[in-house]
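Record pair follows.
FIRST:
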Amino acid sequence: LWGLLLEEFTASEDIPVLYSLSGPQAAAADATQAAATGSSGDNDLASLSFEPLVSISTKDAPRPPRQQPEQAAKKQSSGWLSWAIGSGASTPTSGTSTPTSGAQEEEDEETKRQRTETVQQRMAREGLECAVTAEFVPLFGDQLLKRRFRSGFWQAATQIGNPDSWVLRFLRARNWDVEKALDMIRRTVIWRIGQAIDEISFYGESCLHSHTMESGLAFACTEDRLGNPVYIIRVRANVARARSIQAIKRFLCWQIESSQLLATKSDGKVTMVFDFNGWCRENIDTKLVRTLITLLTNYYPETLGIVLLHVDSFVFSTLWTLISPFIDPGVKSKIVMARNSSDLAPYIDPQLLVSELGGQKPFTYEYVLPTADENRLMADAEGRKKAEARFVDAVAGYEQCTRQWLHTGESDGLDGSGRANAREALRQAAINLDPYVRARTLYHRFGFINKDHGVAF
């Protein structure tokens, strides 16, 4: 597979960046997104692989026409699934008085702001300094709207420190079929370039949906017994009408990219705990689940360790019994039902399990806004130039060692020579470059990630 990849590096043509987040291209991508999704919002899921996530501006696709009350009531009451969810879970409190028209207009403006406002827009509204003041510049001397396959590959493959581990993910995902693994890598790199994943990492949280970040919909805060970072997904915090599907796509991509910084002990694998405490009917969002599965299956293979469904609900158990036969066996084998903290204990040490799930670790999620000071290196053009040069040289050195390895058939041996030294040089060069090309994350501010990319929860 490495032999084919090295050939691909020299043979591939430039790949267009379809949905840049920088400058005028963002507005163009926004218009394309609105045209692609249409009013129903379904196309953005059906063609996720090559449709935009969302531009850095926060326009949404057109909303579907408002239903008449009797139509909405009829739709909500139809179907056994709606009945089961509606009858078995808590529902929002009703019976409040009808607001006046003035209050309704004010409420609508606030709702609209919450639905569309990014973290950067919130900071501007509150008079805070921009978190990322530098302009995005692609690595390897690539153009703003074009990237080479080689540069896209190396930016992805060096996230977890070991390019071999990244390549092995695709081989495992395709049952060791080299040609299929190459095709999957090719599609992944093209997708990453088209969606401007490097720009999402560069701008970081500033381009994410503010309300989603504040709500604590999903966050990492501990590790499991295998050393995998544990992400908690609070189902109760997910309200689809409070943000667009495009915004949640960007949020999920950013979280998965960030997870690779936290998963250095586990070659990029993560554990997910879906917490169903306090969930109600409006929290059930099939589009979010489909988006997450699509991303993890098509573009981040072998990233998912296990999924723990933390739920004690007769209705959910009944639904799960009905739908589980239709779930892909590979995915289903990674899903575990857990009614309480005792059921979670075999997977997560009770001392490391957060208190909101019945564990002993005192952790309360609170979103901390980014600051310009934490990203000051991103504006250091000279420092970036030196760090990038070392990274480019390290990539060339690793490629040369790999060619020699392929030619001679000799392994690294036990003395750490050859590719092992080149791999370590590349890992260190990527760490040194990171603060120049990636905005610091919430997990840096929590103190989970140190400057040497060590992780401690």
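SECOND:
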Amino acid sequence: MSDKSDAGGDADPFASFAPEAVAAAFASFPKKSDNPRLFQARLTLWSDLIISTARSRRLGPNTLVISTQGISEKFKRKNGAVPLGMGIVISELIESRTLLSLSDFHASLSTDPWTLSAIATLPIRYSFHLLTRTLFAVSPVDFVVTPLLDEACAAVLDAFQPTASTQPLDGLLGFDELCGEAGVRIKSIALSRADLALVVKKLRKSGKVALTMDPNGNVELVRFPDAPGTAPAPLTAADAGTVAVRRTISALAAQVAELEAREEALHGDVVRALSGGFRTRAARFLKQKKQVQAVLARRAKSLLTLETVHDRIRAAHADVRVVDSYAAGRDALKAVLKDERLQVDRVDEVVEGLREAMADYKEVEDALAGAGELGMDDEDVEKELEKLVEMEEREELKVRENASHVAHEVSGASMDALIGALEGMEVATEAPSNAPKAKDSKEPVLVE
């Protein structure tokens, strides 16, 4: 029976393993040169386990970043067993770039030539650790799990990709807004604020989003493309102002909701105080209610004003898009009209030639229609047709007369022959009942 729980009490990644499989996984790693197949199988097992455990945030507070410090203890069993080859596993994952140190990830976002050359020498800089296998005893480091980072980037792009119905400013988000929206839109992978910061920084490197950051490197604004197949527009001070307006609207909306709840609660206090006969207390609650109502009215008015401003900003962006479309259409039309085939003289020449061609075709068509008649008059055709009909009728009458005459002759000859045969026959009028019958008689015997 397998051990189904780990030291932390979370879901056990080895729950489906047989006891002997768990023991083999926790045993010392074989030498790569002695048994390459077993080494690779053990490495694949632990690589998959580390990635799946990181995805469920059992290796730290984030999904995309894990710490090497005490990582073996994260897989400790209740019987005290810890994986003996974790240093080898992590070193191999670093060499394959499955794990990338957080500092090297941030360096990879830079376009500085020295930084890029430093990144290219990562395998060399880790060679000592790969040989000694003491990486984590010497220098615990935070690492980015690159397969999970790639998956998170794809999920974010899919969740925030523009569509045909995308409105202006839909792709413009403050980082707080992005974190809130990502929690709602992305279900395939859980991402913390730190995870999302890594994601959008990598997406900016590939040109998929635009960012602004404060001097400490914290993400402030994020812009996704406004239309499918386009690049994100650069962020401006006006965009920062728009996000600030939207942030204030959210704060005011929360305050208005809180004040409305407070007003309702005070109204209940007034009613209960009056019902209990506590007029002084009711008056105090009523004064508080009046004060809350005054603040609520001011906040509601400010909220309405800011919402109107934001709506007009959005409408202005839509107008800009329309004007840009007008300009693009104007430029396209001008470019087409510059074609020499659309010059006025050229068009007149083509139209005149077309008219001449149509006139020539009409003459040919009329000639072909006249040739089909072959000079024959319709009256002559009718007379010839009547003659043919009369001849056909005479032939049919003659055939019927001949057939009637032949049938009459055949009928008369047949009747004469039948009468002659009957007259040659003798008919016995009386026949004795005891008269013997001749067996071989050739005379016909008539039976009355």
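COMMENT: Strands lie at 65-67, 99-101, 142-145, 172-174, 210-213, 219-223.
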